[in-house]
Structure formats: C-alpha cells, structure tokens
TrEMBL record, chain A:
Transmembrane spans: 59-83, 159-184, 249-268
Signal peptide: none
Organism: Actinoallomurus iriomotensis
Matching InterPro entries: Permease_MalE
GO molecular function list: phospholipid transporter activity
Keyword set, alphabetical order: Membrane, Transmembrane, Transmembrane helix
A GO CC annotation given for this chain: ATP-binding cassette (ABC) transporter complex
This protein's record includes keyword Membrane: yes
Name of the protein: ABC transporter permease
Highest rank taxon of the organism: Bacteria
UniProtKB/TrEMBL annotation, chain B:
Listed GO MF terms: ATP binding; ATP hydrolysis activity
SUPFAM superfamilies: P-loop containing nucleoside triphosphate hydrolases
Keywords linked to the UniProt accession: ATP-binding, Nucleotide-binding, Transport
Record's protein name: ABC transporter ATP-binding protein
Length: 276, 340
C-alpha cells in the first residue's frame, strides 16, 4: 500500500481524471462518502448484538482524555464570562441580574462550545488515530474478511460513547463554569452571594439546559463520525494517519460550530424566551 | 472441497494510475496457484479485489454463482466466510495477544466451548511453530512470527479458499521450506483452493500447480507450472529464473536504450534450467489435484530441459512416478495420474 506511484508517463491519460482527483473530490465525493458511511453506521447501530464492552471501554477512554482538560477550560471560561457580563450588566444598572446572565451565557452557549471543542480535539483525535492506525495495519481489512462489519464493531460503539460522554461533559462544563463564575463574582468582584443566587433563574429556564444537552449529543455524534470516517479512510502509512488526525480536528471543529449556530437559531425560533 | 474462482476481465485503477487491466484467469478448485510479479505490480491489490475489499473498475470475480464485486453487503460477508486470508503484514489485531487473535474467528463464528477453542488454537499454533508465544502481543514479536500467526488465524476456520500474501517474506530459508511443505500438506488434507503471492522463486518453481505472472499492468501468463517453467516468453523466462537479462529492469521496465545496450553486449538468455519435481505431501499421500510430472509437456509436445524432474536424491520422477502412484491411492477420487 505504501509503494510510490508508478511513473506518470506510463499511466493512461484521462481527460476527466485531474478534476475528479481534485476539486470535485473534495466538494462532492468526500461529503458523499461521509454521509454514506454515516447512514451505514446508523443502520449498523440497530444490528444485534450491541457491543457493550467496546462501548464501555471507549466511553471510559473518552472520559479519561476529556475530563481534565474540560475542567481546566471551564473554570477560566466561567470566570471570563462573569467578568465581561458582570461589567456590562453593572454599567446598565442591573447588578441584581449578574447571576442570571452568567448562568444564561454559560449554560446556553459557553458549555456547548467548550464541550464541542474538547470533543473534537481530544476525543476526535484519539478515535481517528486509533482507527487510522488499525486501517494502515490492515486490521480493518482483516476484520472485514473475517466477516465482521467494522462499522458495527468499532464505529457504532465509538459514536454512542462520544455522544454519551458529550452529554456528561456538557453537564460538567455548566456546573464548573457556574461555580467559577460564582467564585469570581462573589469573591473577587465583590458581588453579593444572595443576588447571584436569587437571580439564578431570572432569565435562564430549564429548556436552556435541554437545548445544551441536545447540542452536546449532536456534537458528540458528529465528532465521532468525522473521526471514524477520517480514520477508516486513512492511507499512506503513518504520515497518512497524522494527516487524518489533523483534518479530523479541523473539520470536526468547523462542523460543530456550524451545528451550534443552526441549533441555537432553531432554539430561539422554537422556544419562547423569558423576558426581564 | 475447494471452490473454483473465475476472474473475468478484471480491471483496477486508483485515480489515474491503472494497476492492471483485463485480468482473466481461473483458479481451479482444490489446486495451488502462485501469483508472481515485480514489486508494485498490484499483487496485493489483486488479492484484496478477490475478497471484495477493493472494488474493481470493471470485470467479474465469480465464486460459484456469486460475483464478488457486485454482491450486496450481507451476501458479501457470507461469501467471505469461504476465505482465509493472510495479509502481507499479518494484519493481527494489535490489542489482542496471539492466542486471542487466532481464537477470534472461532469465537465470532462458532459456538465452540472455550476448551474446544483452546484445543484448535493450540493445534494451529503448533502447526506454524508458535507454541509458547500465546500471550505475546503482536507488537512484541518478529515480522516472521506475525506472518505465521496471521496464517494460523487464516486457517482456523478451515476455509475453502486460502489467499496468502507473501507468506514467506521475512522468513528464514528453513522456515520457508517448512511453510511450503505445510501448504502442500494442507492442500492434500483439505483440498482447499490456494492462491499464494510470493517473491520466492524456489517456492514458485516447486510448490504450485499453476503459476501466473503480472507485469506491466497485465497478466502476462497464467497456466500450469510446467507451461510457465518451460516458456520462452522473455518476461516469464526472466522472472522465473531470476535473471537480469530480459525486459524487466530496476524500475519496472527497461527503456529502449538499456535493451539495445544489452543486445550489443551479446547477452543471451541462455538455456532454460531444469524443471524441478513438484513438492509432495510429507506423509506420502497424493493430492487430489496432483498431476503426473511432465504431463503438460507431453500433451503439448514440449521437450523439458535436460535434467528436469530429478530431485536431490537423484531420483528421476518421470520414471519414479508410475511406481509412486501404484503404491498409494489418491486422497479424493479420480486423481492419481493427473486429470484426463
Ligand atoms: N489504497 C491504495 N490507493 C492508491 N494506490 C494504491 C493503493 N493500494 C495500492 N496502491 C498502488 O497500487 C500499486 C500496487 O500495489 P500492491 O501493494 O498491490 O503491489 P504488490 O504487487 O503487492 O507489491 P509487493 O510485491 O511489493 O508487495 C502500487 O503502485 C501502489 O502504489
Ligand atoms: Mg504486496
């Protein structure tokens, strides 16, 4: 698989080929293949038996690579938001609402974004590297020849594990972020604990949390699918795996931001917001 | 009983790079075939296309009435159960030790008890000489050991078609000799259809019933061993005798100036070396696919090079053969003096 391509002059020329290799491939074929794989994965998800062991292993693995960085990112994120929002709110003369705006900002937007980035970076790269290494060692081919569908065996458990961990991470980010915001606001900015607490649910509502969890779920699924696709199509030896991991992180992060925007827009359309 | 594979007009390219075109051949049921070709001519790609891991641009690959490139996913997975495949680098599962690797197909596809699995696995590990390495991870063993473990895993379900990608690369000469004997013995025992990709000329000359040669994006020749070993076709002749003189150069093809220079130097390909006798099963059985030595040559009026069919003990197999056959009965009906 790793031999250098044969001499150009010896291969048959074809007028369509250069285009097919380049732009068309990137714009149409790759996304096409990605969606085809996603559909096949969805189909494989309903096949018996479910791979519990792989699921648990992967979930544990993803947790282990994401929790620490998530917490490390969530604390300063909550603090910054409190600082920025707190200042703004004070200037507007609505000190009593600092708590509620911080909660709103963290639960609604910050935590899905932090979760998205961490899942894309930590979980996505790990999944892609793992599957990519298996692919170039021909383990995936061997599995298929042994009559086992790698989508069912490897990809489905990873996608579900990533989604599951996404939900959980989103919860962590919210809690840690709000705690960080509280500490920052009350201890460093001299806000009153009572005001922070009592305005807690002033603007935020339960659907905010639901939409954040839905986002986290979608992000988890997307990142795992992108990572699996890139891993399973890796070629060209160890360097190919490195490239695939790199592309996974970039593509997954972009996809997650787009999804975040779409889901937020939908949410504002569908769910009535609380007034001040 | 082995299964016939009929490959018809198979063509494969990656993007603009055509790997091979219009490959047509039949791997006869229960026979051992060897595929040769310079590095990078797409032998591994050919094996992967046969099992449906790569989709050809055109053509068919019939296993019975099933056409591998055009099967639905479910049927494809079913048909693959006929195959045992040894990949070029062994393709062991890196996260499992050797025992679990070899036991994997049994645990997936049979309801055997753990003790039955253990018995079969140990038997296969002994066959490939890996006893004692059960608990090792693939990353902790040598390339040759990985190869042998991969072979054991490919054999564990007793497949009807066995595809081996360079089983002998990375093996020492003694292990290679044992491996060749193992292949012949396995074929005698199970009558599976074998396709072996190899760079080992000795293997290619002594083991198979049929030889094929891929070169310059096409199948140059495919046929009975004696046909290729006695062939005057320059590419076949050069390759099967591992010579520098001939159309194959360092970079796949020699260019015109190189060939002219060679002609001026007065290099001539010399006389064909003797055709060695075919390797027989160790226990003295006859394989169902066994042909009589010299059968093809006689049928086509070709005189073999002097000294052909003489083994290391100096026995002439052309003379020895009738006695040898008379002493034993073939494993499965109708062989003996070869096919009609
Ligand atoms: N997945 C792939 N994508 C693109 N090109 C490929 C792919 N797999 C193989 N090739 C190309 O196909 C050609 C044949 O490769 P292959 O591995 O089949 O050679 P081979 O005959 O097995 O060589 P060797 O004897 O060295 O193992 C090479 O030029 C290689 O670059
Ligand atoms: Mg190869």
């Amino acid at each position: 698989m790793t031999q250098a391509p044969e001499r150009e002059s010896e291969t048959k020329p074809s007028r369509l080929a250069p285009v097919a290799d380049g732009a068309v491939n990137v714009i149409f074929r790759e996304p096409g293949r990605f969606f085809a794989m996603s559909l096949d994965t969805a189909r494989a998800a309903f096949k018996w038996p479910f791979q519990w062991q792989e699921f648990l292993q992967q979930a544990w693995f993803i947790v282990s690579v994401t929790v620490a960085p998530t917490i490390m990112v969530a604390i300063p994120f909550g603090a910054i938001l409190s600082l920025q929002v707190g200042n703004l709110i004070r200037q507007l003369g609505a000190q009593s609402q600092t708590g509620s705006t911080a909660v709103l900002a963290i639960v609604r937007e910050a935590s899905p974004i932090v979760t998205a980035l961490l899942i894309a970076a930590a979980a996505g790269s790990a999944i892609c590297a793992d599957l990519g290494a298996r692919k170039i060692r021909e383990e995936i081919d061997a599995m298929e020849v042994l009559g086992i569908n790698p989508l069912h065996r490897l990809v489905v458990p990873r996608v579900l594990a990533c989604a599951f961990v996404g939900l959980f991470l989103n919860g962590i980010v919210s809690v840690v972020g709000i705690a960080g915001g509280y500490i920052f606001n009350v201890m460093l900015q001299g806000g009153t604990p009572g005001a922070y607490m009592s305005s807690f649910s002033g603007l935020a509502q339960l659907p905010d949390l639901y939409q954040a969890e839905v986002k986290a779920l979608v992000f988890g699924v997307t990142a795992a699918l992108v990572a699996s696709y890139k891993g399973l199509t890796a070629s060209g030896g160890p360097k190919g795996v490195g490239d695939a991991v790199n592309q996974t992180v970039v593509i997954a992060a972009m996809a997650l931001f787009v999804e975040n925007f779409v889901l937020s827009a939908l949410y504002f359309q569908l769910v009535p917001q609380k007034g001040m | 009983m082995g299964v016939e594979i009929r490959v018809d007009g198979l063509t494969k390219s990656f993007g603009r790079q055509v790997i091979w075109e219009d490959v047509t051949l039949t791997l006869p049921a229960g026979e051992i075939s060897v595929m040769l070709g310079p590095s990078g001519t797409g032998k591994s790609v050919f094996l992967k296309t046969l099992v449906g891991l790569l989709k050809p641009d055109r053509g068919h690959c019939w296993i019975g009435d099933r056409d591998m490139p055009h099967l639905r996913e479910h049927d494809l997975y079913e048909t693959r159960k006929l195959f045992g495949v040894l990949f070029q680098d062994g393709a062991l599962f890196g996260s499992m030790n050797l025992f679990d690797n070899i036991a994997f197909p049994l645990r997936e596809h049979t309801n055997k008890s753990e003790s039955a699995v253990k018995k079969i696995v140990m038997e296969k590990m002994e066959m490939v000489g890996l006893v004692g390495a059960e608990r090792k991870l693939p990353g902790e063993i040598s390339g040759g050991m990985r190869k042998r473990a991969g072979l054991a895993r490919a054999l564990v379900l007793e497949p009807e078609i066995i595809l081996c990608d360079e089983p002998d690369s990375g093996l020492d000469p003694v292990r290679t000799a044992y491996l060749n004997q193992l292949i012949v013995d396995l074929n005698a025992e199970t009558n599976a259809t074998f396709l072996i990709v190899t760079h080992d000329i000795n293997t290619a000359r002594t083991v198979p019933d049929n030889i094929g040669l891929l070169f310059r994006r096409e199948l140059v020749m495919f046929g009975p061993r004696e046909m290729l070993l006695s062939s005057e076709e320059p590419v076949v002749r050069q390759f099967l005798n591992a010579r520098k003189v001939g159309p194959i150069g360092m970079s796949e093809e020699k260019d015109v100036s190189e060939l002219e220079a060679e002609a001026r130097m007065g290099h001539d390909p010399g006389v064909l070396p003797p055709i060695p006798p075919q390797l027989m099963p160790a226990d003295g059985r006859l394989r169902a696919a066994q042909r009589a030595p010299g059968e093809w040559l006689r049928a086509h009026g070709v005189t073999p090079p002097a000294g052909s069919f003489v083994d290391e003990q100096g026995r002439d197999w052309l003379e020895e053969w009738p006695r040898y056959v008379a002493e034993r009965t073939p494993v499965a009906g109708g062989a003996g003096g070869g096919r009609p």
